[in-house]
Design a protein that fits this description.
It comes from Pyronema omphalodes (strain CBS 100304). Pfam families: MFS_1 (PF07690). GO terms for molecular function: transmembrane transporter activity. Its main location: membrane. It is found in: Membrane. The protein is an all-alpha fold. α2 (about 25-55) runs antiparallel to α9 (about 145-155), α3 runs antiparallel to α11 and α6 crosses α9. The chain has one domain (about 25-460): Growth Hormone, Chain: A. The protein contains 20 helices and no strands. The radius of gyration is 22 Å and the shape is globular.
């Protein structure tokens, strides 16, 4: 049986054809946007993830000894401090995005945090490491919510999850191979009189700076602004109007409404945004936990530092393939909640296997399951919110709030996975399982609420300010 949203979508497609809409040409335009927008966002978020999580690679490469981190809580402090400015500055950055321009703002941010990474390769004191991590959080704060805002603005509701998954999971896949890159950079030990861990920061920082300059000339702006910028010349004016028309047929918000502080306050008063934000916090907790502690967990299984780096990659490859398949399924079925819950269960089962089974093989298999669920739910929860809100101003506020709470998930992961709990980190494992149970309860609650509201919409109630809008279950 088809859901109500699927039936509505089928009717919508039929009416488009009857109205003479060239759906095939629209799809060609969408693919042009795909290739112009998603690769550069994926590349930039790849280096963003690497730059915020390569602390674990540097630690096992000798940073923990040189900066006197071992046996103290200094490593956790350096991890945690990143997320404080990251949380604080996400909403202000998103509010500036349309005013400054996507390419200018996101490209500049990448160049700046890349420069910070290069500087981290020359540190002599752990306290300066903490300062640099705080500055890194400030510059990275604007990128991911800005990217989510742009992607959700270009596509209709049931195209968005595989696009979110596309640019996010590509970055996760590249991030998974960062351990192998780090292993190679460790071999530069002694060049220029620098330790191997320092070259990890320096080379990866240089790559980020170069990509930031590329982004300045390639990232496209929002649909209603794209022709005003030099990066929008791959589309004609008529092409843009066609793309805006399909967005308006879907949710009628291709042209931005003005963002004012009164609107920001009104949107923040919508309790649904806070539920979506809490769900995203719970989704990022296992993702960050694996990112920051996977090499240490593998090392605790008895692997050498080098093997711990190399064995970090295969689970990420498996996770990206499986999670993208789940995103395609979610878009095809027009369902978000069931996919999220299934991936929550994967995280729980994977963590329990890793924590409580004996033998390296089963524990390593648990990492595959846990990482698959964790990485898959990041784009799934982002899309869950994107499908259930309208208006550009609300999308701007909602994506910033949601990704901001993702930073809280990073803080949570940094503190519950404690140094003295190594190598199994049981305290962190159970805390992470608790976040997955919360997400499952939130999905159940939202499903009941959305089903009730959709029923009222059929009786004449207006949802999200539009008479034809229905929530996605």
């Amino acid at each position: 049986m088809k859901s109500e949203t699927q039936k509505a979508e089928d009717v919508h497609s039929s009416s488009d054809r009857e109205a003479g809409v060239d759906i095939e040409y629209e799809q060609k335009l969408i693919h042009k946007v795909d290739w112009r927008l998603l690769p550069i966002l994926g590349a930039l978020y790849s280096v963003a993830l690497i730059d915020r999580t390569n602390m674990s690679n540097a630690a096992v490469a000798g940073m923990d000894v040189e900066l006197h981190l071992k046996g103290t809580n200094r490593y956790s402090i350096a991890l945690l401090i990143f997320f404080i400015p990251y949380f604080i500055f996400e909403l202000p950055s998103n509010l500036l995005l349309r005013r400054i321009g996507a390419a200018k703002l996101l490209g500049t941010l990448a160049v700046c945090w890349g420069a910070v990474m290069i500087g981290m390769g020359f540190l002599k004191d752990w306290r300066l490491l903490v300062v640099c991590r705080a500055i890194l959080g400030f510059f990275e704060a604007g990128f991911f919510p800005g990217a989510v805002y742009i992607v959700s603005s270009w596509y209709v509701r049931y195209e968005v999850q595989k696009r979110m998954a596309g640019f996010y999971l590509v970055s996760v896949l590249v991030g998974g191979f960062s351990a192998i890159l780090a292993y190679g950079l460790m071999q530069m030990k002694g060049i220029g009189g620098l330790s191997g861990w320092r070259w990890i920061f320096i080379i990866e920082g240089i790559i980020t700076v170069l990509l930031g300059f590329v982004a300045y000339f390639t990232i496209i702006d929002f649909p209603d602004k794209v022709l005003e910028t030099r990066n929008g010349n791959f589309l004609t004016a008529s092409d843009v109007e066609l793309l805006k028309a399909r967005i308006d047929r879907d949710r009628d918000d291709s042209t931005a409404d003005e963002i004012t502080w009164a609107k920001v306050g009104k949107h923040l008063g919508d309790w649904k945004l806070w539920v979506f934000a809490m769900m995203f916090m719970c989704s990022t907790t296992p993702s960050y936990a694996f990112g920051y502690f996977l090499p240490q967990i593998l090392r605790g299984m008895g692997f050498s530092a080098a093997m711990s780096q190399l064995l970090s990659a295969p689970p990420y490859i498996f996770a990206c393939i499986t999670a993208f398949g789940m995103a395609v399924l979610a878009d095809k079925t027009h369902k978000r909640g069931p996919v999220i819950v299934f991936q929550n269960l994967l995280v729980i089962v994977g963590l329990l296997i890793t924590a409580y089974t004996k033998g390296t093989g089963p524990r390593y298999f648990g990492i595959f399951l846990g990482l698959t669920g964790a990485q898959g739910n990041v784009p799934a929860v982002l899309s869950y919110q994107s499908n259930n809100i309208r208006m550009n101003s609300k999308r701007s506020v909602g994506s910033a709030l949601q990704v901001g709470f993702g930073a809280i998930g990073g803080i949570f992961a940094s503190t519950v996975f404690r140094e003295h709990d190594a190598p199994k980190y049981l305290n962190g494992m159970w805390a992470t399982i608790g976040t997955q149970l919360f997400t499952m309860a939130a999905v159940a609650t939202m499903t009941l609420y959305f089903r009730s509201q959709n029923k009222k919409q059929k009786e004449g109630k207006v949802l999200e300010g539009h008479p034809n809008f229905q929530y996605t279950l």
